[in-house]
Amino acid sequence: MGQITLKQVTKSFGNVEVIPSLDLEIGDGEFTVFVGPSGCGKSTLLRLIAGLEDISSGQILIDGQDATSVPPAKRGLAMVFQSYALYPHMSVRKNIAFPLRMAKLHKAEQDRRVEQAAAVLNLTDYLDRRPGQLSGGQRQRVAIGRAIVREPSAFLFDEPLSNLDAALRVGMRLEISELHERLKTTMIYVTHDQVEAMTMADKIVVLRAGNIEQVGSPLELYKNPRNQFVAGFIGSPKMNFIQGEEAAKYGAHTIGIRPEHIAVSETDGTWSGIVSVSEHLGSDTFFHIHDTGLADTITVRAGGEIGFRHGDRIHMTPREDVIHKFNENGLRFT
Amino acid sequence: MATQQSRSAARIMMAPAVFLLLGWMLIPLCMTLFFSFKKYLPLRGDSMANGLEWVGFANYVRFVSSSSFWPSIQTTLIIVGGVLVITIVLGIALAILLDQPMWGQGVVRILVIAPFFVMPTVSALVWKNMFMDPVNGILAHLWKFFGAEPIQWLSQASLPSLVMIVSWQWLPFATLILLTAIQSLDSEQLEAAEMDGAPVHKRFFFIVLPHLARAITIVTLIQTIFLLAIFAEIFVTTGGAFGTKTLSYLIFQRVLESQNVGLGSAGGVYAIILANIVAIFLMRIVGKNLDA
């Protein structure tokens, strides 16, 4: 079991309120991702759940039990840190066994669980090495191994992939997702990378300045963002926002259109502009278009075969059915 | 230092300093060695001008077979060991305390380091006259306040008194080194251990202490080298009486009080050998630290 409920949780550091009153429900077995720009309080929120910081007011329930004043070790949660936080003077085996040793588990049982975790994470060959002799990805796996052996009711990940290079990050992302499929344990994952959030999450919690902006499945957030912030944060490249006359035509203060929902043409379209940069990825091409009279830059995603160059005039047609309308307060309406 | 030219230029420019240092070190060393094989009693009319009598290893044998030799070795070891234990244990405790965020941290840290800036002679005099004086000392007053007979520190408890004085001098050094080591400990490691169910004392023994291992070794070795040579503290307080004669103090007595230069020089050579054994370990560890 691993059901976590936050009730009117607040957190202040001195006079600075980091998290104003916040309610959140995380279901058993859910992969929940906290995502938001840096400094939005997502790591703080995770540390509050872990018990590494005390909450200023409110209540944290784990499996229905009040855990507000329960020390971190007794909450039954395991955490994977951004810096991995491996113990450098211990071998991988001792690192993974550390929580078991602290729990005074039988030596044979310790060994059994460590071997099991090592097998799951492909670490069997490295058990006798020190963390300093491992690569970034292997260290990450050791940190996960140390979390797994405790058989916690929920895993907490604090930006675990931000220290890895891009290729490794994609690999570890898959491994963590697979791990979740296999263990079916609740996982809370903090990241500032919306791609990680979109690809891994069952449920995304978008945070800004300690406030929850929206909670929902990745596609829900993509299709029906509650406000302009969520619309701009979810999706890559970012949604284009257009204000003024063009927005007024739709009866809105601002309209938003995603780069993938704009068709391009050489000859005719609703809007037009000059291509300033075209990024060819092979599968797709991203055009950054200036001088449209709509916004500074309009980004458009087109197929990989389309070959506009810097300085070319380009015509664009948005898909009317996926234009998002926002009022003066940034809230979306239909 | 990439090219052949810049490398040889560097050598030429470093040469004067290297020669100066070598001379500075080698000339006294060679003279000590030379005297240690000679009979040299200035009060009996021996002098360099008259030529000194070659006595082989007689001085070495006599120094070791003297009844003061083994007690002096014992005293040296007690002082070095006692000071090391006290400074490292209290140093770790102080370092942990000073690492906590508190009001006036900067001032407190400077105050803690202050004893290190007091000259050994001065600090020994301060302790002797202001703390340990059996009539006017603060400790004597304290004892009398509780109705106890004041201790005559420097005669009744001479060795513990010396250990106390020297520890007071060296505690700041140990604290400083250990504090910087503690500050370099990743706080996420401690949090991870906390999540893993380690209570405070286990976090100290499993995480903090292993992290400090290197710093503790360095403190031990550097202090050992300096503590083997403490002199002023003994000279000012007990003058080598009441069982406080260390090896270096014994050498001083042989040369200056007994006016036996040859015998003292032989003792000096023993001291050099002892210090070098420690220095070899020190350089290996410090060198390893710089590599990593």
TrEMBL record, chain A:
Gene3D superfamilies: 2.40.50.100, Nucleic acid-binding proteins, P-loop containing nucleotide triphosphate hydrolases. InterPro entries: AAA+_ATPase, ABC_transporter-like_ATP-bd, ABC_transporter-like_CS, ABC_transpr_MalK-like, ABC_transpr_MalK/UgpC-like, Mo/tungstate-bd_C_term_dom, NA-bd_OB-fold, P-loop_NTPase. Pfam families: ABC_tran, TOBE_2. CDD domains: ABC_MalK_N. Transmembrane segments: none annotated. It comes from the Bacteria. Signal peptide: none annotated. GO terms for molecular function: ATP binding. Residues 4-234 form the ABC transporter domain. Keywords: ATP-binding, Nucleotide-binding, Transport. Belongs to the ABC transporter superfamily. This is Sorbitol ABC transporter ATP-binding protein /mannitol ABC transporter ATP-binding protein. It comes from Roseibium denhamense.
TrEMBL record, chain B:
It is found in: Cell membrane. Gene3D superfamilies: MetI-like. It is a multi-pass membrane protein. Keywords: Cell membrane, Membrane, Transmembrane, Transmembrane helix, Transport. InterPro entries: ABC_transporter_permease, MetI-like, MetI-like_sf. The chain crosses the membrane at residues 12-37, 77-98, 110-127, 162-182, 212-242, 262-286. Pfam families: BPD_transp_1. Residues 73-282 form the ABC transmembrane type-1 domain. Belongs to the binding-protein-dependent transport system permease family. This is Sorbitol ABC transporter membrane protein /mannitol ABC transporter membrane protein. It comes from Roseibium denhamense. The lineage of its organism: Bacteria, Pseudomonadati, Pseudomonadota, Alphaproteobacteria, Hyphomicrobiales.
